[in-house]
Amino acid sequence: MKVEAALHRLGWHHLFSGQTLAASSIVTFPSGAMLCANDGVIDSLFVVLEGRVKIYTLSEEGKLRLLRLKAAPTLIGDIEYASGRHVLHTVEAVGTVVCLRIPFEVLKTYNRTIEFTEHLLRGVSEKLFIEANASSNHLMSTLEERLAGYLVSLSEAGNDLFQSEMSQLKRKEVAEWLGTSYRHLNRTLQAFADEGLVERTRKQVKILDMERLKQRANGMLYE
Q: What range does the record give for the signal peptide (predicted)?
């Protein structure tokens, strides 16, 4: 992959200097790989050039909770770079993900530009706002709203990834992310099927009525 061409396509070519790009590398993560893990150490900024990641955290009860799904272009490690702290949330590849890996030391040496600093501040502020909003929405929303929002958000990743994430093997993880039990998740999926919103089998889920599913989500999207 030509990094400059990819950044131009994404509209981010102005953010990084030539010296920064020369000292960076392309990294490909397979589906399910962790780009970073909660409370771990990260020493590089990852610019997601292709693919999609899911970002989740631990609740106060010690359970996983899904925060959002993000498609390219997005930055991973920006909060940690700006704050100097350990990793805030776990980030996992959904399908193959291609990233530009830029060591923090390279950014500090070659990329202290106004354009990058402003972009970084906007991105960090937006993420913190989304996180605070998502936390309150998660507490107040119903499982039907969370599941509908997850299905709508996940559908943007394409059918193959959608089916992989909603497979029988993955549904226990999905249930934990959405703050429910495996049985309750399956009951809600069946209720959606009975209403004609989705078609459900043991191996896959197919969305039949996207507009009504969006209405059921009631704004609870993971994007």
A: none
Q: Which CATH superfamily is domain 3-138 in?
A: Jelly Rolls (2.60.120.10)
Render pLDDT for 186-203 as a digit per residue (tens, 0 to 9).
899 999 999 999 988 777
Mapped onto helix, strand or coil, the DSSP state of residue 148 is: helix
* Residues 182, 116: Cα–Cα separation, whole Å: 43
Q: Which CATH number fits domain 142-217: 1.25.40.10, 1.10.10.10, 3.40.50.10490, 3.40.190.10?
A: 1.10.10.10
Strand-strand pairing, 44-58 and 25-29: unpaired
Residue 52 and residue 156: Cα distance in Å, rounded? 10
Per-residue pLDDT tens digits for 55-90 = 988 766 667 778 888 888 999 999 999 999 999 889
Looking at residues 163-180, what average pLDDT do you find? 76
The confidence score (pLDDT) of residue 179 equals 82
- The CA-atom distances, in angstroms, between 144 and each of 17, 44, 77 are 46, 38, 32
Percent of the chain with pLDDT over 70: 88
Question: What was the pLDDT predicted at 161?
Answer: 61
Distances (CA, A) of 123 to 37, 64, 129, 142, 143: 20, 24, 10, 29, 29
Q: What tokens were used for 162? A: 């959608």
User: For the purposes of burial, counting CB atoms within 10 Å of the CB of 70, is it exposed (0-12), middle (13-18) or buried (19 or more)?
Assistant: buried
For Cα atoms 123, 129, 134, give the angle at the middle one, nearest 5 degrees: 120
Each domain of the chain, given as residue ranges in start order, spans: 3-138, 142-217
